[in-house]
Amino acid sequence: MTDVASRLAARRGAIVRNQAFWGVIAIVLLLAVNVVADPGYLSIGYNSGHLSGNLIDILRASAPILMIAVGMCLVVATGGIDLSVGSIMVVAGAVSMELLSGMDGTTGDAALTLAIALGIATVLGAVNGVLVSVVGLQPFISTLVMMLAGRGIAKVITGGQNTTADNDSFAWLANGYVLGVPVVFLLAIVIVVLVALLVRRSALGLMLEAIGMDSRASRLAGVKRRSLQLTVYSVSGLLAGIAGVFATASVMTVDVSRTGYQLELDAILAVVIGGTSLAGGKFSIGGAVIGGLLIATLDKTVVFLGVPAAATPAFKAIVIVVLCLLQSERVRSLFRHRRALRAQSQKEAVAA
Amino acid sequence: MTGAPPIVEMTGISISFPGVKALDAVDFRLFPGEVHTLMGENGAGKSTLIKALTGVYKIDEGQILVAGEERRFGGTADAQAAGIATVYQEVNLCSNLSIGENVMLGHEVRGPFGINWKATHRAAADVLATLGLEQLDLRRPLATLSLAIQQLVAISRAMVTKPKVLILDEPTSSLDANEVANLFTVIRRLRDQGVAILFVTHFLDQVYAISDRITVLRNGGFVGEYPTRELDRTTLISKMIGKDFATLRSLGSERQSHHYEPRGEPLLKAEDLGRKGSSEPTDLELHQGEVLGLAGLLGSGRTELARLLYGADKPDSGTVWLRGKKTDIHNPTAALAHRIAFSSENRRDEGIIRDLTVRENLVLAVQAKRGWFRPLSRKEQDALVRKYLTELNVRPADPERPIKFLSGGNQQKVLLGRWLATEPDLLILDEPTRGIDVGAKAEIQAAVAALAAKGVAVVFISSELEEVVRLSDRIIVMKDHRKLAELENGPHVTAETIVAVIADEGDDEEGDSE
Amino acid sequence: ACGGGDDDTSTSGGDELVTVGFVAVGPEGGWRQANEANVQDTFTEEAGFELKYAPATNLDQRSQIDAFTSFVDEGVDVILLSATEGAGWEDSLRRAQEAEIPVILVDRGIEPDDTSLYVTRIAPDNYEVSTAVAEWAVSEFPDGGNYFVLEGPAGVSVVNERNRGWDDAVASVPGLVKVGAQTANWSTEEAKSVFETVLKSNNNDIQLVFAQNDEMGLGAAIAVEEAGLTPGVDVKIATIDGTKPALEALAEGRLSFVAEYNPLFGETLLEVVEQVLNGEEVEPYIVVPSETFDSPEAATAALPSRKY
Amino acid sequence: MTVTTRPPTGSAPGTAPSLAERLGARLSARLSALPTVAALLIFVGMIIYGEAAYGRIVQFNTLSNLLVNNSHLIILAVGLTFVILTGGIDLSVGAVIAFSSVAGVMLSNAGWHPVAAVLVMVLIGSVLGLISGVLIQYFGVQPFIATLATMFLARGLASMLSTVPERLADDSAIRELATQLKIIDGDKVNDLVITPGVIAAIVIVVLGFLVLHRTRFGRTVYAIGGSEQSATLMGLPVPATKLGIYVISGTLAGIAAVVYTSRLGSAQNITGIGWELDAIAAVVIGGTLLTGGTGFVLGSVVGALVLGLMNVLITRDGGIRPEMTTIITGGILLVFVILQRVLAARRRATQG
Ligand SMILES: Nc1ncnc2c1ncn2[C@@H]1O[C@H](COP(=O)(O)OP(=O)(O)OP(=O)(O)O)[C@@H](O)[C@H]1O
Ligand SMILES: Nc1ncnc2c1ncn2[C@@H]1O[C@H](COP(=O)(O)OP(=O)(O)OP(=O)(O)O)[C@@H](O)[C@H]1O
Ligand SMILES: [Mg+2]
Ligand SMILES: [Mg+2]
Predict the structure, then answer these.
(1) What is the fold, at CATH topology level, of the domain defined by D36-47+57-343?
(2) Per the database record, which ranges form the ABC transporter domain (chain B) (predicted)?
(3) Side-chain half-sphere CA neighbours of C224 within 13 A
(4) How many structural domains are present in chain B?
(5) What is the mean pLDDT of chain C?
């Protein structure tokens, strides 16, 4: 009996110590706030052949963030950072729209476009990888360069225009439904699961963590730092490309100055909320997914509550700070201390 | 010493970490003007006791009196202010700064315009000179120094504050005999000035050479406090390990008597292997089942040679034949693929990966060798881990514990396990017994001997010449980054032989240059 | 033409080119693109000009001030200024005056509007354009209705002016109820995301959207369609700018009203520059006439000749 | 003791160190200054190139405007040098400027004494820096995230104060801080001028240099950058120092706000977006490593001037397509870091 209780307590301790747990709590709290504002918030309707509702919107909005967050998570695990994901998004979007606007709108066109856009995104990611692993530049600077240049490249591709295109198959990627569920979310989840399986079922995860924790020691242990870093930045580029396709396909327009703008910050936040340290090492893809969902929920909540545009950043800041405080060891030990004191006084009361 | 009250008195100190009781009601006293050695196996709690004293760890129970007053320090800075200077076990310096800056960090001499660098450097030079480091260029980046010199720099740093209590946690682990002698002169002088010195080492010779009193810990528990005079070695060892020590003693002579006769083609043959600035072109031959010792003083270039063999540094001259075939070993991955393994002398920075678990650390090299897409199944991993944890007697034998929570000796054993698990034909061990307790040292030596018997070629580097002599079939004596001599081992070879070889050459050279 | 004291190059119209420094906004959207391309296409070497084009980085005013200063230091003949922000130009303009370089404001004005600091301002009128939208809205919804405003980034002067124009005309009308305003940062994608949520939080009970640029209006239209409603019928969307995609959408009935904010005034600008260089007097504010399009037919008619 | 310690001298094995080798050792000790020297050389090269290609660079007004226009950036870069030297980062400086200047202008217009308003502006910076510092030091929040939160917070507070430009009254004494003091009155605008802002920047640079190199605080900053754990175990005041650098960075952002606002005569909530990246780029160009431990304040000044000069040159050229500007900025940044790397590697190789 006490054994079960203690095991439960231990389990609970592990959950509470798991940083992503607080991300889940934050999502639940935000949803609760929305429900208070409008009791019908969580209701999911069925209209014109698909599910609809605020939750469905959140899932759809989270898809691009999930993509870049997962890519970022892998990069961060190796002790790096990828500031260029937002810019790679806009490049992929620009390539897609520019190609599609000159085509007829067949599914074949869409597939070809997708392949080219993702290919280019991967190449840009690989350039990051080369700068970091072969040239040996600091990740922050290499990807900062790509962040600056990427947006410029997108503008060159569209000639500075916000190109619009028409292709139903392409738009379906972002706006379509399968079995009533948004395709874009299903795709995102499938990709996340694939990446997670790849990383965790192979020894890739261990290798990435080893590099992130101690690249010198892992080199001597035979870990191929260069090729792994190259791979990781390429994957991050590819995923950012997918995110760019998701983002532009939803409106079939690429906005060269806005698409993906500052989304790298969202991705980094998602990763950190998920419990991965920016210092590298242990990483959690599940955590990054929770972080991504939280950010989508937060963005949607701000709009739903009609928080004035001016106050939005402050609202975000408060959520981040509270979350960080909850995740911090110090605050938690404060709580623990309180609880311990309470338990002790109870015990003493029993003894007396 | 007799009359004076203790300057540090710790009573009933207990500290637990998740899953371990690192200290359990330990008592410890330190008197002014004495050298007090703290003894115990790896993981006995020596470093923890020191950190408890200086406030790096918070104690769960117990009392600390410093100069008769109850104190709880908040950290090294606090302790320093109270006159307790500490050199922790792993070298803790800032490799981005210069030697002089490191020595004086936090104690720079200040004038009206802030730090007076001239005076600061002068002070640094003075304190370095006491350890015989007067020829060091103070402006050199610390990173260019070998670990051993760094250790001496760290010790110099502790003496800057003119402390009343000086704590040295394994200061001699990287030093050779001369350095040790040098250090002991300094320690004796400080002792005579009334400084209380707490000293940790695993070298029994050093204990008997320098210490006045010994406190023994075992498994986090307090065993006893003894005047050194009243405790002979055997008793000391049995107090440390808690059982009889006879089995360990016989080992060394056994290996030396077994002498290997090289037959047939060498496993590895190197010609003119070298690297500009770090290693003169060297010829080398190595046979299966042979233990090749590299002996020399600090900075003689043993580590560099080993790193070249492993591809950790790229050689810029020379050819290597492996099993008769010309081979290019340009990086560690290639070396592993050719069944060469290398355990670095720098356990903290180039060995363990602190935040990974024991299991992950142990399987890392095997996994890297296989490539990430061919993962070891959990079952295979567990089998490997179980095998080496038992074989090498790692304590605690908990594979899921982050390796940073193991004591130094046990970390070393896990690393040895990592390399053995790759089933190498050639194993290069650079200072594998650094900071290892007597028992574990014997175990590691036994493991090396067993490997050689199984046909593995071993390159064995150690600053402890006795150990090299005991284990090796052949010994290469190095100096100034080049091969000085190659000795066939035998009953006629002793540590003194090697010292003599080095010294002769040194005299010759000095004669030449003057 | 490196700006000596009495400049005779422009009057002689000879072989030397007139150097024009254009402190521009840079890629921002369809409208800006059309406007700046138009200016660049007008001040060509054939026309006797060397145009130095300096777009802002990230729409940051600081980079514009740097570019402006640099043009003054270099001693160009004329400076065209499209300020990202109205305030904070006094110092720079005064230095241009000291250097005897005439400054012409293109599109956006400065605050406070001290006409002694510049020669003239050529622009469509934001206030008037958004008033035009508001007037259409009032006439379109005689019985009133709920409306929502999609704004540009909070704090930008265009946003403030367009809000003012709208509010002044609509505030006094009792039936029109503002259910909210959000920024969508001029972006289609964000507008779609914002408006789909706004529709849900208002149970689709919104009849009118005032989008402060075309891109956001198009985003709102997509959100309306995805909510199963019909734009133009259930929700009417009015936008400002008058880019081609917007007119196409208007022709299809997805948008209901488009107010042009005419970007193509390069010719006027060229004339004014020549007048200024010849020392002629010019009006302190030259308003560029803008049209409005209130029906699919009007849009269809205008589309073939649309340049942007 | 016949054989004394023979520390590895880096000389060719077996020979006594010659003069050349000792010189090499000297240089190697200064290795960390190399990137900074490289930055300085490239800066001079850029000036020469600019003068040759476009003219009117080496003249009083262009050079003094380079200082006047970039004085706030220099001040920010000094603050970030402190932060980055410890291996941290401060993303909040741009937003701090926005909040501090909007608040300052509003207070001044509300009738506050200008000195009080300026003090509040600086203090706002210090307080926001303190918030970041406390989050980082006492709650273990990672610097990137903590300062990101501060950034959102400051931006949000600024927007809540006002979303329209707040103009300083024409007679406000704060405007005096931008008075152009003509040292040499040249033809037309070709004057050698200096503003109180420039003087402030120079004083701050000198102070920054002295603090870093001549105080124990400064040495601790470097030590933390080398190894925070070692610094702690060496008994250095790590927590206080880390707190201190974020306060310094915030305070300097506050001062930069004063300098910038006085020059502009107005303040706005959207001021300073992306300036943190400019400042970080300046620091990096100046040769400071983002991983901490090496770098110089003077390098950051050169970095800021390089960025400023680059903008001038791009403007002077005038023919660069708008979509190319960010690509060029990124490209130049890249060339810079690669060049520094190559130089350092070459030096290290020859020294060996
Ligand atoms: N920070 C920590 N967290 C958890 N366990 C720890 C920590 N530090 C030490 N331990 C454990 O405490 C015990 C005592 O370790 P300690 O480092 O004091 O040993 P030691 O006597 O110094 O050994 P060595 O001779 O190898 O240095 C070991 O079992 C070790 O695993
Ligand atoms: N912290 C470090 N970082 C990088 N390289 C190091 C470090 N410490 C040591 N080294 C390398 O290892 C060498 C140390 O070897 P050293 O010159 O002392 O010869 P050695 O004969 O191996 O001496 P010993 O092993 O007794 O220290 C240094 O010259 C350097 O090349
Ligand atoms: Mg220890
Ligand atoms: Mg060595």
Answers:
(1) ABC transporter involved in vitamin B12 uptake, BtuC (1.10.3470)
(2) 8-244, 262-505
(3) 24
(4) 3
(5) 87
